[in-house]
Write a structure and sequence with these properties.
mainly alpha, membrane, transmembrane, transmembrane helix
Length: about 260
Amino acid sequence: MRSVRIGLGALVTLVVTGGLAATRTTGGAAFLAGAQSFLTFYAGVFSLVGLTATVGLGLAATDRVVLPIAQRVRVQLLHRAMALLGVGFLIVHIGMKIAAGVVPPYGSVLPTTNVYVSTGAVASDLFVVIVATGVMRGRFAQAERPWMWRGLHDLAYLAWPAAILHGLTAGRAAAPWVTFSYVACMVAAGTALLIRFAAATRPARQAATGEWSAAPLRRSGHAGLGETRTAHTPPARGRTGEQAPERTPQEPRLRRIV
């Protein structure tokens, strides 16, 4: 994460320096005016797309059924990168709206304007808390209450629908395919969340009901419990070719049904 922060700091410094230098020329000033207009129109869209991908990748990173460990680690890195990208565009989106006079500075943090803009303010506050807890995950793991990190990080499942509601209602009218896409994403994320919850609670339910069974043992020529063999497994022999002595009977081991 340190290298990521250094890279982001260098990128921000480069962009700010280039923007200040561009204002000293006519062409640069025209380019910046066009970039400002573009970001005013699309920064919120990019932020919402990035945060939607963040939620989806976060769900995929916790999967223990389909993805192996190595793939989950890669997905987690993408999850963090998309979170930083989404919050970056969120900051740009808020700055552009304040500069255009659409919302007062306090209205971007406090829900003091109309309902739909206030929904975006609440969502942005929650996303900032979520990203901050993600950056400080190691400190939460060493604390006395590691479950607090999970509770704060799971606020994304409240912030993300609020951000979608803000994006579809606060600004210009959304195209039908845009509305359908976001609704489909919410349904898919909700389904994945239910599957993850069911998979996480399954071992606890089985432990509560006490579902245990003895491992199947095959008898090999004597009535007592003895060495487990199959019909195709020859008896073990020593170096001289003689049959090795039978093992002493052992108690059957119990294994848990998962």
